[in-house]
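Good morning,

Attaching, inline, the backbone tokens for the sequence recovery test we're adding to the shared suite. The designed sequence is right after.
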């Protein structure tokens, strides 16, 4: 690769004003094309529909690709067919001569939207005070569409040291994280992408070879549409068969092995994501609300994730769960079609960070209480009770108010849905022995004498907890997710905790957590959306409640 550095600000999101003409000949060299997969993350297909590359299988040794209407192997990615196979005849793709990529890794101390100068200044000052040199990197991009400027840029404040090895950067992140009681992540940029010689082999022995990337698509039937591609590989150790819209490309991945990337219309990918995110039998307006939230979330993530991978987003929970078209029902496809191109936009013109969660517990949460960042106008916590339900937190989320909430029967819209009832209220017992490993993961190596919630967000979720250790020292655990993890993976941090009887040295052998809700509580309560839709609210009303200042706009 001759053009080695793809820093984050090179992660261009490409929206063309019109469909790009197919290249005549091949003006780009093949290796340039493979390299371009690290930059171009959204394009328009031949009919003007935005498309997105999503990783569907990672670290594959070999995969099989087949289509019910026949298979085209495209060596250049621009339509020049190298090979055709009749219907139902598979090709097996494997790689030889792999060369790992070269990366630079940074410890991320803090992050915020690039135009949130107050937060960035404050965080930079905080880390400088701690005596650490800070370097700012930018991720994400700006683009305009339908006359609207969209901005997904975030500034990452990083430790001003680059690590060639991910392990070393992670070790440093863990060390600083323990020292300052925060979860620190690692950010990487590509110096040189991984490469390999790829070969696709049919059962009759014919084969196609290419360096670094191979594209596959279904032969179009007389109707003009190809059958879905079927890809057979392994996921989490088990054989997996995926049915995928659009086309795929196969590239060497950064973790070794092959990455299988599905490049398809955003609307088709959305069908698969919505199918993975919500009950298929949810009422139509809950499905529509989910489709708009998911589309917004997906577009807001583009350019800010996977900057060292040859795709825009992954199909794991890290980005958005996506398992192809298998679980897409006609009702889900209809909900996506009904809301085609609709997204939520903040008053400042920015795409809403459309977070959602399973069950609010009775009140949704402000974004700045769940993770660092400025308060977002669309992510203000709201009471989520049906008419006549008591908002126990109306005068503030004190322990007494939370106790009243927990003692009262759930009267939220999630409760009214009839779904997910086990997450409305819950109770978990943990022995000190059970808690030891998860406490150790946040740097606490002693048994606990006391647990006290220091601060709660508007939903009642604990955002800061003080632990009194066996030797009397006190430790603060901050952050909703960190708190849930520290106590063995609680459904939410909306809880009260009671010690069991004190054992030797005043250390209780057991703790009881009584809580409500499932997830961080920010944005839409998915189960509540179902309850609201069942009661006749339309998707714009539902979204308007959960995304407080957002309005729905047609992006394409
Ligand atoms: Zn991801």
């Amino acid at each position: 690769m001759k053009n080695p550095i793809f820093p984050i600000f090179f992660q261009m999101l490409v929206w063309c004003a019109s469909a790009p003409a197919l290249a005549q000949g091949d003006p780009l060299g093949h290796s340039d094309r493979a390299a371009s997969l690290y930059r171009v993350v959204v394009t328009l297909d031949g009919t003007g529909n935005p498309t997105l590359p999503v990783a569907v299988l990672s670290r594959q040794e070999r995969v099989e690709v087949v289509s019910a209407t026949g298979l085209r192997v495209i060596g250049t990615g621009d339509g020049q067919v190298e090979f055709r196979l009749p219907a139902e005849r598979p090709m097996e793709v494997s790689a030889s001569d792999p060369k790992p990529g070269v990366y630079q890794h940074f410890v991320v101390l803090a992050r915020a939207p690039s135009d949130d100068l107050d937060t960035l200044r404050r965080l930079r000052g905080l880390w400088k005070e701690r005596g650490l040199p800070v370097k700012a990197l930018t991720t994400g991009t700006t683009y305009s569409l339908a006359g609207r400027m969209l901005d997904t840029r975030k500034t990452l404040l990083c430790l001003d040291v680059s690590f060639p090895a991910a392990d070393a950067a992670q070790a440093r992140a863990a060390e600083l994280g323990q020292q300052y009681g925060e979860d620190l992540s690692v950010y990487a940029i590509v110096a040189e992408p991984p490469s390999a010689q790829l070969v696709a082999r049919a059962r009759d022995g014919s084969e196609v070879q290419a360096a670094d990337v191979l594209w596959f698509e279904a032969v179009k039937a007389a109707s003009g549409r190809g059958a879905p591609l079927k890809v057979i590989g392994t996921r989490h150790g088990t054989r997996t068969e995926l049915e995928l819209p659009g086309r795929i490309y196969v590239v060497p991945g950064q973790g070794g092995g092959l990455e299988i990337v599905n490049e398809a219309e955003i609307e088709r990918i959305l069908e698969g994501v919505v199918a993975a995110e919500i009950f298929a039998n949810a009422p139509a307006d809950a499905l529509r609300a989910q489709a708009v939230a998911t589309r917004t979330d997906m577009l807001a993530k583009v350019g800010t994730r996977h900057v060292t991978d040859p795709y825009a987003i992954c199909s794991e929970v890290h980005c958005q769960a996506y398992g192809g078209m298998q679980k897409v029902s006609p009702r889900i496809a209809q909900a996506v079609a009904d809301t085609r191109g609709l997204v939520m936009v903040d008053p400042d013109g920015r795409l809403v960070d459309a977070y959602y969660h399973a069950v609010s517990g009775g009140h949704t949460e402000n974004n700045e209480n769940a993770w660092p960042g400025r308060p977002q106008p669309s992510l203000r916590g709201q009471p989520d009770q049906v008419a006549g339900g008591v908002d126990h937190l109306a005068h503030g989320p004190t322990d007494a108010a939370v106790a009243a909430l927990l003692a009262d029967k759930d009267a939220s819209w999630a409760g009214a849905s009839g779904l997910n009832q086990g997450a409305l209220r819950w109770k978990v017992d943990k022995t000190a022995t059970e808690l030891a490993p998860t406490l150790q993961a946040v740097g606490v190596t002693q048994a606990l004498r006391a647990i006290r919630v220091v601060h709660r967000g508007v939903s009642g979720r604990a955002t800061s907890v003080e632990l009194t250790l066996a030797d009397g020292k006190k430790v603060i655990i901050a952050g909703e997710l960190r708190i849930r993890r520290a106590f063995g993976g609680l459904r939410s941090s909306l809880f009260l905790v009671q010690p069991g009887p004190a054992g030797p040295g005043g250390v209780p052998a057991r703790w009881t957590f009584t809580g409500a809700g499932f997830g961080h509580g920010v944005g839409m309560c998915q189960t509540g959306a179902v309850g609201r839709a069942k009661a006749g609210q339309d998707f714009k009303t539902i979204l308007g409640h959960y995304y407080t200042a957002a309005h729905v706009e047609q992006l394409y």
